Amino acid sequence: MITALLAHPYPRFSVITIPLLKGLKQQFPQMDLRALYDMYPDGSIDLLAEREAISRSSLIIVAHPVFWYSVPALLKQWFDEVLAYGYAYGENGTAVKGKGVLWLPSLGTGYREGEFPGEVEISEVEAPLKRMWTFCGAKWLDPEIVDTRKSLTAEGFSDLIERLANRIADWESYHD
Ligand SMILES: Cc1cc2nc3c(=O)[nH]c(=O)nc-3n(C[C@H](O)[C@H](O)[C@H](O)COP(=O)(O)O)c2cc1C
Questions:
Q1: What is the pTM of this model?
Q2: β-sheet bridge partners, residue 6
Q3: What's the rounded Cα separation, in Å, for the pair 30 and 83?
């Protein structure tokens, strides 16, 4: 089972993250696609529901546009509230242990090549997320970073979905 945490506060303007997740949902109809900003418009996250979704899954996809070298605010709140002591770490906190985490950030729109985050900077965005999930015992998979400064053709986009679908199917064949 796959849970996808999708955090995009402006879905109408999304040309990458939302189409990408919709494409994956077509390939994996059983995927639990959790559009956090649709589900929790008032910012009040249902912790029980989120934890149930996580406990059903062997793979957690985390998809969002990069906002100021970080994640959109509701996703940060999700991390802070859902991955709590006694659940995700600390005493009896083993809920995400052994689960795979696949990070799918998109970035770059409005910035010139070399101007905003390049290779070095995206690794800086990745570092705290990777540390957080691995601290909780999850397995950090190679992320799939979509840099909108590098032009993505329709064909490139389908290739990306296909590559991701293969990786996800591979993970599932070993872990479900
Ligand atoms: C508030 C805000 C902050 C952003 N910060 C960054 C950033 O730090 N680095 C970056 O490369 N792009 C940044 N962007 C651009 C978005 O990451 C980019 O538009 C988005 O990933 C495109 O994906 P989408 O089509 O799914 O919206 C920012 C955009 C907004 C609205």
A1: 0.95
A2: 35, 63
A3: 24
Q: Is the pLDDT of residue 111 over 70?
A: no
- Which of 15, 66, 148, 151 best tests ligand 1's pocket when mutated (most atoms within 8 Å of CB)? 66
pLDDT digits (tens, 9 = 90+) for 126-154: 999 999 999 999 999 999 999 887 778 89
Domain 2-175 has CATH 3.30.1220.10: no
Q: What integer pLDDT is reported at residue 121 of this predicted model?
A: 76
